[in-house]
Amino acid sequence: MNGTSPLGDFLRIRRSQLRPEEAGVPTYGERRRVPGLRREELALLAGVSASYYARLEQGHSLGASPEVLDAIARALGLDESECRHLHDLARSAKPRSRRRPVPEHVAEATRQLLDALANVPAIVIGRRSDVLAWNRLGHALFAGHLEPGAPDMPGRRPNMARLVFLDAHTRDLYVDWPSKARAVVGNLRLMAGQYPQDAALHTLLGELSAKSKDFASMWADHRVKACESADYEMQHPLVGSLTVLQQTLSQGPGPSIVVATTAAGSPSRAALELLDRAVTQTTPAHSDSRLITG
Question: More exposed terminus of the chain, fewer Cβ within 10 Å: N or C?
Protein backbone atom coordinates (compact mmCIF):
# COMPACT_ATOMS: atom_id res chain seq x y z
CA MET A 1 0.00 0.00 0.00
CA ASN A 2 1.07 3.59 -0.61
CA GLY A 3 -0.08 4.92 2.76
CA THR A 4 2.15 5.37 5.73
CA SER A 5 -0.03 3.61 8.30
CA PRO A 6 -2.94 1.16 8.48
CA LEU A 7 -5.18 4.08 9.50
CA GLY A 8 -3.99 6.17 6.56
CA ASP A 9 -4.41 3.28 4.14
CA PHE A 10 -7.96 2.64 5.32
CA LEU A 11 -9.00 6.29 5.06
CA ARG A 12 -7.42 6.76 1.64
CA ILE A 13 -8.89 3.62 0.09
CA ARG A 14 -12.37 4.17 1.50
CA ARG A 15 -12.32 7.80 0.36
CA SER A 16 -11.36 6.68 -3.16
CA GLN A 17 -14.32 4.26 -3.17
CA LEU A 18 -16.90 6.94 -2.31
CA ARG A 19 -18.32 8.59 -5.43
CA PRO A 20 -19.16 12.31 -5.17
CA GLU A 21 -22.82 11.71 -6.04
CA GLU A 22 -23.09 9.17 -3.20
CA ALA A 23 -21.80 11.77 -0.75
CA GLY A 24 -23.93 14.60 -2.14
CA VAL A 25 -20.91 16.50 -3.46
CA PRO A 26 -21.66 18.47 -6.67
CA THR A 27 -19.15 18.06 -9.51
CA TYR A 28 -20.69 20.40 -12.10
CA GLY A 29 -19.66 18.04 -14.88
CA GLU A 30 -15.94 18.53 -14.27
CA ARG A 31 -13.41 15.87 -15.22
CA ARG A 32 -11.86 14.57 -12.03
CA ARG A 33 -8.29 13.33 -11.88
CA VAL A 34 -8.72 11.18 -8.78
CA PRO A 35 -11.23 8.41 -8.03
CA GLY A 36 -13.75 9.10 -5.34
CA LEU A 37 -13.70 12.18 -3.15
CA ARG A 38 -10.82 14.60 -2.82
CA ARG A 39 -9.29 15.05 0.63
CA GLU A 40 -10.69 18.57 0.81
CA GLU A 41 -14.19 17.34 0.05
CA LEU A 42 -14.08 14.60 2.66
CA ALA A 43 -12.68 17.03 5.24
CA LEU A 44 -15.52 19.46 4.53
CA LEU A 45 -18.13 16.74 4.96
CA ALA A 46 -16.53 15.68 8.26
CA GLY A 47 -16.22 19.23 9.55
CA VAL A 48 -12.43 19.19 9.98
CA SER A 49 -9.71 21.19 8.28
CA ALA A 50 -8.23 19.83 5.08
CA SER A 51 -4.72 20.03 6.53
CA TYR A 52 -5.72 18.05 9.63
CA TYR A 53 -7.41 15.35 7.57
CA ALA A 54 -4.37 15.14 5.28
CA ARG A 55 -2.17 14.55 8.31
CA LEU A 56 -4.45 11.68 9.39
CA GLU A 57 -4.11 9.98 6.00
CA GLN A 58 -0.36 10.53 6.04
CA GLY A 59 0.00 9.03 9.51
CA HIS A 60 1.30 12.26 11.05
CA SER A 61 -1.55 12.86 13.49
CA LEU A 62 -2.23 10.22 16.15
CA GLY A 63 -4.51 12.17 18.47
CA ALA A 64 -7.86 12.11 16.67
CA SER A 65 -10.70 12.27 19.18
CA PRO A 66 -13.59 9.78 19.12
CA GLU A 67 -15.86 12.62 18.00
CA VAL A 68 -13.66 13.45 15.01
CA LEU A 69 -13.40 9.78 14.05
CA ASP A 70 -17.19 9.45 14.25
CA ALA A 71 -17.58 12.51 11.99
CA ILE A 72 -15.17 11.03 9.45
CA ALA A 73 -16.99 7.69 9.62
CA ARG A 74 -20.29 9.43 8.86
CA ALA A 75 -18.73 11.32 5.95
CA LEU A 76 -17.40 8.05 4.53
CA GLY A 77 -20.74 6.30 5.05
CA LEU A 78 -19.22 3.59 7.24
CA ASP A 79 -21.45 1.07 8.95
CA GLU A 80 -21.14 0.07 12.60
CA SER A 81 -18.44 -2.56 12.04
CA GLU A 82 -16.42 -0.25 9.80
CA CYS A 83 -16.70 2.61 12.29
CA ARG A 84 -15.48 0.34 15.08
CA HIS A 85 -12.59 -0.71 12.85
CA LEU A 86 -11.68 2.94 12.25
CA HIS A 87 -11.52 3.53 16.01
CA ASP A 88 -9.40 0.38 16.46
CA LEU A 89 -6.91 1.57 13.84
CA ALA A 90 -6.65 4.99 15.46
CA ARG A 91 -6.20 3.46 18.91
CA SER A 92 -3.58 0.96 17.76
CA ALA A 93 -1.55 3.77 16.17
CA LYS A 94 -0.80 5.04 19.68
CA PRO A 95 2.18 3.12 21.14
CA ARG A 96 0.89 3.37 24.71
CA SER A 97 -2.34 1.60 23.82
CA ARG A 98 -0.91 -1.36 21.93
CA ARG A 99 -1.75 -4.70 23.48
CA ARG A 100 -0.14 -8.04 22.94
CA PRO A 101 -2.59 -10.88 22.30
CA VAL A 102 -3.06 -13.56 24.91
CA PRO A 103 -2.96 -17.26 23.99
CA GLU A 104 -6.31 -18.72 23.02
CA HIS A 105 -7.88 -21.77 24.59
CA VAL A 106 -11.25 -23.51 24.68
CA ALA A 107 -12.96 -23.13 28.03
CA GLU A 108 -14.69 -26.07 29.69
CA ALA A 109 -18.03 -24.27 29.36
CA THR A 110 -17.49 -24.06 25.61
CA ARG A 111 -16.74 -27.79 25.44
CA GLN A 112 -19.97 -28.52 27.28
CA LEU A 113 -21.87 -26.30 24.85
CA LEU A 114 -20.40 -28.16 21.88
CA ASP A 115 -21.59 -31.43 23.40
CA ALA A 116 -25.06 -29.96 23.96
CA LEU A 117 -25.18 -28.92 20.29
CA ALA A 118 -24.65 -32.49 19.13
CA ASN A 119 -27.30 -32.23 16.39
CA VAL A 120 -26.15 -28.81 15.19
CA PRO A 121 -22.88 -28.26 13.29
CA ALA A 122 -20.68 -26.12 15.53
CA ILE A 123 -17.04 -25.04 15.47
CA VAL A 124 -14.95 -22.81 17.75
CA ILE A 125 -12.99 -20.15 15.86
CA GLY A 126 -10.10 -18.07 17.21
CA ARG A 127 -9.19 -14.51 16.26
CA ARG A 128 -6.90 -15.73 13.45
CA SER A 129 -9.70 -18.01 12.15
CA ASP A 130 -7.98 -21.08 13.62
CA VAL A 131 -10.39 -23.94 14.33
CA LEU A 132 -9.85 -24.56 18.03
CA ALA A 133 -12.61 -27.17 18.36
CA TRP A 134 -15.59 -28.67 16.59
CA ASN A 135 -18.29 -31.18 17.31
CA ARG A 136 -18.75 -34.23 15.09
CA LEU A 137 -21.38 -32.65 12.88
CA GLY A 138 -19.38 -29.42 12.56
CA HIS A 139 -16.39 -31.44 11.39
CA ALA A 140 -18.54 -33.40 8.94
CA LEU A 141 -20.17 -30.31 7.43
CA PHE A 142 -17.21 -27.94 7.18
CA ALA A 143 -14.15 -30.15 6.84
CA GLY A 144 -14.98 -33.83 6.68
CA HIS A 145 -11.92 -34.41 4.51
CA LEU A 146 -9.65 -33.51 7.46
CA GLU A 147 -8.79 -35.61 10.50
CA PRO A 148 -11.42 -35.31 13.26
CA GLY A 149 -8.70 -34.66 15.86
CA ALA A 150 -6.93 -31.94 13.85
CA PRO A 151 -7.96 -29.04 16.15
CA ASP A 152 -6.14 -30.79 19.00
CA MET A 153 -2.82 -30.68 17.11
CA PRO A 154 -1.43 -27.09 17.04
CA GLY A 155 0.96 -27.87 14.20
CA ARG A 156 -1.86 -29.24 12.03
CA ARG A 157 -4.77 -27.19 13.34
CA PRO A 158 -7.16 -26.15 10.54
CA ASN A 159 -7.51 -22.48 9.73
CA MET A 160 -10.75 -21.43 8.07
CA ALA A 161 -9.17 -18.60 6.08
CA ARG A 162 -6.57 -20.97 4.64
CA LEU A 163 -9.28 -23.52 3.88
CA VAL A 164 -11.50 -20.99 2.11
CA PHE A 165 -8.71 -19.60 -0.06
CA LEU A 166 -6.26 -22.47 -0.46
CA ASP A 167 -8.27 -25.69 -0.11
CA ALA A 168 -10.15 -26.99 -3.17
CA HIS A 169 -12.64 -28.99 -1.08
CA THR A 170 -13.73 -25.93 0.91
CA ARG A 171 -13.87 -23.74 -2.19
CA ASP A 172 -16.22 -26.23 -3.87
CA LEU A 173 -18.31 -26.45 -0.70
CA TYR A 174 -19.69 -22.91 -1.11
CA VAL A 175 -21.84 -22.31 -4.20
CA ASP A 176 -21.30 -18.54 -3.90
CA TRP A 177 -17.65 -18.79 -2.93
CA PRO A 178 -16.84 -15.07 -3.44
CA SER A 179 -19.45 -14.12 -0.85
CA LYS A 180 -17.91 -16.45 1.74
CA ALA A 181 -14.41 -15.30 0.85
CA ARG A 182 -15.30 -11.62 1.26
CA ALA A 183 -16.82 -12.37 4.67
CA VAL A 184 -13.61 -14.11 5.77
CA VAL A 185 -11.45 -11.20 4.58
CA GLY A 186 -13.72 -8.62 6.18
CA ASN A 187 -13.52 -10.39 9.53
CA LEU A 188 -9.73 -10.69 9.30
CA ARG A 189 -9.63 -6.91 8.70
CA LEU A 190 -11.45 -6.40 11.98
CA MET A 191 -9.05 -8.69 13.82
CA ALA A 192 -5.97 -7.01 12.32
CA GLY A 193 -7.25 -3.68 13.62
CA GLN A 194 -7.94 -5.04 17.09
CA TYR A 195 -4.69 -7.01 17.40
CA PRO A 196 -1.94 -5.07 15.59
CA GLN A 197 0.73 -6.81 17.69
CA ASP A 198 -0.36 -10.35 16.76
CA ALA A 199 2.65 -11.50 14.73
CA ALA A 200 1.04 -14.84 13.85
CA LEU A 201 -2.00 -13.06 12.43
CA HIS A 202 0.14 -10.86 10.20
CA THR A 203 2.17 -13.89 9.10
CA LEU A 204 -1.11 -15.52 8.05
CA LEU A 205 -2.14 -12.41 6.11
CA GLY A 206 1.20 -12.36 4.32
CA GLU A 207 0.93 -16.04 3.45
CA LEU A 208 -2.57 -15.68 2.05
CA SER A 209 -1.61 -12.59 0.06
CA ALA A 210 1.34 -14.45 -1.48
CA LYS A 211 -0.54 -17.67 -2.26
CA SER A 212 -3.93 -16.34 -3.35
CA LYS A 213 -4.51 -13.56 -5.87
CA ASP A 214 -8.15 -13.53 -4.81
CA PHE A 215 -7.20 -12.85 -1.20
CA ALA A 216 -4.69 -10.16 -2.17
CA SER A 217 -7.31 -8.37 -4.26
CA MET A 218 -10.00 -8.55 -1.58
CA TRP A 219 -7.56 -7.50 1.15
CA ALA A 220 -6.52 -4.41 -0.83
CA ASP A 221 -10.18 -3.36 -0.99
CA HIS A 222 -10.18 -2.60 2.78
CA ARG A 223 -13.75 -3.81 3.24
CA VAL A 224 -14.68 -4.69 6.81
CA LYS A 225 -17.33 -7.18 7.81
CA ALA A 226 -18.24 -8.77 11.11
CA CYS A 227 -19.14 -12.43 10.49
CA GLU A 228 -22.28 -12.45 12.64
CA SER A 229 -24.97 -14.07 10.49
CA ALA A 230 -25.22 -15.11 6.83
CA ASP A 231 -27.00 -17.64 4.64
CA TYR A 232 -24.82 -19.89 2.50
CA GLU A 233 -25.79 -22.41 -0.13
CA MET A 234 -23.48 -25.40 0.17
CA GLN A 235 -22.81 -28.37 -2.09
CA HIS A 236 -21.72 -31.11 0.28
CA PRO A 237 -20.01 -34.18 -1.21
CA LEU A 238 -22.07 -36.60 0.94
CA VAL A 239 -25.56 -35.10 1.09
CA GLY A 240 -25.68 -32.69 -1.83
CA SER A 241 -27.24 -29.23 -1.79
CA LEU A 242 -28.31 -27.48 1.41
CA THR A 243 -28.65 -23.91 2.61
CA VAL A 244 -27.48 -23.10 6.13
CA LEU A 245 -27.60 -20.02 8.30
CA GLN A 246 -24.15 -19.56 9.79
CA GLN A 247 -24.27 -17.57 13.03
CA THR A 248 -21.45 -16.45 15.27
CA LEU A 249 -22.17 -16.73 18.97
CA SER A 250 -19.76 -14.23 20.48
CA GLN A 251 -19.00 -14.23 24.18
CA GLY A 252 -16.87 -11.10 24.16
CA PRO A 253 -13.08 -11.25 23.80
CA GLY A 254 -11.81 -14.70 22.93
CA PRO A 255 -12.87 -17.53 20.65
CA SER A 256 -16.36 -17.59 19.13
CA ILE A 257 -18.71 -20.46 18.38
CA VAL A 258 -20.04 -20.66 14.83
CA VAL A 259 -23.19 -22.73 14.32
CA ALA A 260 -24.99 -23.74 11.13
CA THR A 261 -28.76 -24.11 11.27
CA THR A 262 -31.43 -24.97 8.70
CA ALA A 263 -35.11 -24.14 8.35
CA ALA A 264 -37.49 -26.64 9.96
CA GLY A 265 -39.12 -28.98 7.46
CA SER A 266 -36.87 -27.87 4.61
CA PRO A 267 -34.87 -30.07 2.22
CA SER A 268 -31.78 -28.54 3.83
CA ARG A 269 -32.89 -29.79 7.26
CA ALA A 270 -33.39 -33.27 5.75
CA ALA A 271 -29.90 -33.15 4.22
CA LEU A 272 -28.38 -32.14 7.56
CA GLU A 273 -30.23 -34.94 9.35
CA LEU A 274 -28.92 -37.37 6.76
CA LEU A 275 -25.39 -36.14 7.41
CA ASP A 276 -25.98 -36.47 11.15
CA ARG A 277 -27.03 -40.12 10.74
CA ALA A 278 -24.02 -40.85 8.56
CA VAL A 279 -21.67 -39.32 11.14
CA THR A 280 -23.32 -41.21 14.01
CA GLN A 281 -22.91 -44.52 12.18
CA THR A 282 -19.23 -44.02 11.32
CA THR A 283 -17.90 -42.27 14.46
CA PRO A 284 -17.04 -44.16 17.68
CA ALA A 285 -19.37 -43.36 20.56
CA HIS A 286 -17.13 -41.04 22.57
CA SER A 287 -17.80 -37.64 23.98
CA ASP A 288 -17.43 -34.96 21.27
CA SER A 289 -15.47 -32.61 23.53
CA ARG A 290 -12.90 -35.26 24.42
CA LEU A 291 -12.62 -36.54 20.86
CA ILE A 292 -12.32 -33.43 18.77
CA THR A 293 -11.57 -30.29 20.75
CA GLY A 294 -8.34 -28.48 21.26
Answer: N
